[in-house]
Design goal:
- The complex is a heterodimer of chains A (308) and B (342).
- Chain A is mainly alpha-helical and 308 residues long.
- Chain A has a single domain, classed as MetI-like (MetI-like fold, Orthogonal Bundle), CATH 1.10.3720.
- Chain A contains 14 helices and 4 strands.
- Chain A is globular and about 70 Å long.
- The two termini of chain A are 27 Å apart.
- Chain B is α/β, with parallel strands linked by helices and 342 residues long.
- Chain B has 2 domains: 178 residues, D-Maltodextrin-Binding Protein, domain 2 (3-Layer(aba) Sandwich), CATH 3.40.190.10; 159 residues, Periplasmic binding protein-like II (D-Maltodextrin-Binding Protein, domain 2, 3-Layer(aba) Sandwich).
- Chain B is 39% helix and 17% strand.
- Chain B has 12 helices and 10 strands.
- In chain B, β1, α2 and β2 form a beta-alpha-beta unit.
- In chain B, α7 packs parallel to α12.
- The chains are: A mainly alpha (308), B alpha/beta (342).
- Chains A and B meet through α5 of A and α3, α7, β6 and α12 of B.
């Protein structure tokens, strides 16, 4: 990325022409160590034979993927059937992450728009306010959410005190609690990129649209939204991807009665199962899914771009 | 935990400047060792102590197998994990006569099934795992595993389970009166079905907040370790620890000498130190669990002797250690656990 910027500027690229590869080295190095190597290790481990109680035996095996897709009964000797267990766990996580993303977008977009339309001096303050809670550790924030939502917690006490409800709302240990937790955890990831996009938006375009008799809704849909779409997509991806692998919110707020992708993978390494190849395989399948989603996103965006 | 490790390290550095008698690297559970005791060890021996922490036996095993060997000198696995680690060849043998204080080990803990002859380990703390009930909200008999697996109407949806396969499976086996490593297919199917049915009554699986959900009232029943239950009772007097008549889980954590320990000599010193009645009593006073050393009575808080959580009533069932199953059997139990949480 840094190299691309350097080579496009004419004088800069001449100045650093000889050193370009050397200047890129740190980036390549970081990518290799922190991205390529771990993913390659995961890929290799997912095709190895599991060792009892953690570890791997260096023999090729499809066992991990077989376990993911095929059900052979409690004792492993029934005829194989399609196993919905893990597919359901993945589906549940994707659904949950999707909902959290929609919720964040619904609240995050107006918030970002609001901030971007404030006078320049107060914008920094609003952004600052949005990010303050994020200086606190995620675990602490999730636990506080639990305190807040519980049956005898302040939220229920308040609602009962005001007479809105008679019995406490049962929110803790439900999917709704997980939604709220994920939404609270990742909201700024939605707000900040959209804010950056709206801030750069030229509001005279909206005025022009209004002059040409576009309704407010049409202006929003056909002028503002297309212009800030990259920010919206970036925000959605930034919320969706970490929500998909989240396990703090599902465990603490949802009661951990069912595995999510994150806790399923964690269990393979930290739990009794000690099945490293299966954990690696589940991670690879997750990675593949996320990449496919991102590619579809990117393609659609390009096609839309061509149409315009 | 982090704070704890870093203070230990800071302390180690400051003392290290004065007297360099070498290092000791301990891999330990979180919040399980009073800082004053580590200070005392350093003051007595001049050895710098560094401590890393973990939150489950399995996490410790995974991290050691993933390249942690040769880093740590001692670790503190639970009973069944000592057997597993010995089987995996991760433990070093303590030669006869190497430990000056080996004779201090209480006779009933000198030759445990998980480490015959105490070749690799010394006792640290022991206690039990069962469940606690808020008797302010429930007045029936609590000393039965039915409370967890076949609860009366009023307790349904108010139960927190430990998020730990070993403990839940062992407790369920005791409830059904079947062996912990059964190979009988009918028993295993029945266990699977029983857990599926019981799950409908459980509100949550959580180990880290096992105490806190009871104190806050989120749960009326919670699976819990005896020491945590005692702490819960200090905050909410109606939290009562149960000793079910069907039996309960007993555990013992042990200090083991790891293979390839970089500071083997200091590890032995540390183990001898923890076999001194006064020192191990300090751990019990802090953690509220039992110890396995003779002659420590005078150093213990008097209230520990009468703690309801560590003194089972006469009609309580027997305590049982978690058993180590062979690979094929364990695979079935893993599958049952996955079925339970899918």
């Amino acid at each position: 990325m840094a190299g691309g910027a350097a080579s496009s500027g004419s004088t800069a690229s001449d100045t650093y022409a000889g050193a370009r590869h050397w200047l890129l080295m740190p980036s390549w190095f970081v990518l290799l160590i922190f991205v390529a190597a771990p993913v390659a290790m995961m890929l290799v481990y997912s095709f190895l034979t599991k060792e009892f109680r953690g570890g791997v035996i260096w023999e090729f095996s499809l066992g991990a993927y077989d376990q993911f897709f095929f059900d052979r009964g409690l004792f492993g000797d029934d005829p194989p059937q399609i196993d919905w267990t893990y597919i359901n766990i993945f589906w549940r996580s994707i659904w949950q992450a999707g909902l959290a993303t929609v919720l964040s977008l619904l609240i995050g977009f107006p918030t970002a728009y609001f901030i971007a339309t404030r006078p320049e001096r107060s914008r920094a303050l609003w952004v600052f306010v949005i990010t303050i809670p994020y200086w606190v550790n995620l675990l602490i924030r999730t636990v506080s959410m639990k305190f807040l939502l519980r049956d005898q917690g302040p939220m229920n006490d308040f609602l009962i005190w005001t007479g809105v409800i008679d019995d406490p709302l049962r929110i803790i240990n439900t999917n709704l609690a997980v939604q709220l937790g994920l939404f609270y955890s990742y909201l700024p990831f939605m707000v900040l990129p959209i804010y950056a996009a709206v801030e750069r938006y030229n509001f005279t375009l909206s005025e022009a649209a209004a002059d040409l008799y576009a309704s407010k809704w049409a202006t929003l849909r056909r002028v503002l939204l297309p212009a800030v779409k990259p920010g919206v997509i970036a925000g959605c991806i930034l919320v969706f991807v970490p929500s998909l692998g989240a396990f703090l919110a599902p465990d603490l707020l949802g009661g951990a009665r069912n595995f999510m992708i994150g806790s399923l993978i964690e269990e393979q390494f930290k739990g009794n199962a000690g099945n490293w190849p299966f954990g690696a395989a589940a991670s690879m399948i997750l990675l593949t899914l996320v990449l496919i989603i991102l590619m579809v996103f990117a393609r659609q965006q390009r096609r839309m771009g061509d149409m315009r | 935990m982090k704070y704890f490790a870093s203070t230990a390290m800071a302390l180690a550095l400051s003392v290290g400047a004065a007297a360099a008698e070498g290092d000791l690297v301990v891999y330990h559970w979180f919040e399980y060792m009073p800082q004053e005791l580590l200070d005392k060890f350093t003051a007595e021996t001049g050895v710098n102590v560094t401590m890393d922490t973990y939150d489950s036996n399995e996490a410790m095993l995974a991290s050691l197998k993933a390249g942690g060997m040769g880093t740590y000198d001692v670790a503190v696995p639970g009973d069944y994990m000592v057997a597993i680690m010995a089987g995996e060849g991760l433990l070093d043998t303590i030669a006869d006569g190497e430990l000056t204080n080996k004779g201090n080990i209480a006779p009933e803990w000198a030759d445990p099934s998980f480490d015959p002859g105490r070749k690799h380990s010394i006792p640290y703390q022991w206690g039990s795992t069962a469940f606690a009930v808020d008797t302010g909200s429930y007045e029936g008999d609590i000393n039965t595993t039915d409370i967890l697996f076949n609860p009366p109407e009023e307790l349904r949806g108010k139960i927190n389970m430990l998020d730990s396969q070993g403990e839940v499976m062992a407790m369920a086996s005791l409830h059904m009166g079947i062996p912990q490593c059964s190979t009988d297919r009918d028993q295993l199917k029945a266990l699977n079905d029983m857990l599926q049915g019981a799950k409908a009554n459980w509100a949550s699986f959580n180990s880290d907040t096992a105490k806190e959900v009871l104190v806050s009232g989120d749960a009326v029943v919670g699976m819990i370790y005896d020491g945590f239950s005692a702490k819960a009772r200090e905050e909410k007097a109606s939290v009562t620890y149960a000793f079910p008549k069907e039996g309960y889980v007993v555990w013992m954590d042990n200090v083991v000498l790891l293979k390839d320990a970089p500071n083997r000599e200091n590890a032995i010193k540390f183990m001898d130190f923890l076999l001194e009645p006064e020192n191990i009593a300090a751990v019990s006073n802090y953690a509220r669990y039992g110890l396995g050393v003779t002659g420590a009575e005078d150093f213990l808080d008097p209230e520990l002797a009468t703690l309801p959580e560590s003194n089972p009533p006469a009609d309580a069932g027997a305590g049982a250690f978690i058993e180590v199953c062979d690979e094929a059997t364990q695979a079935v139990y893993d599958q049952i656990w996955t079925n339970l949480k899918k």
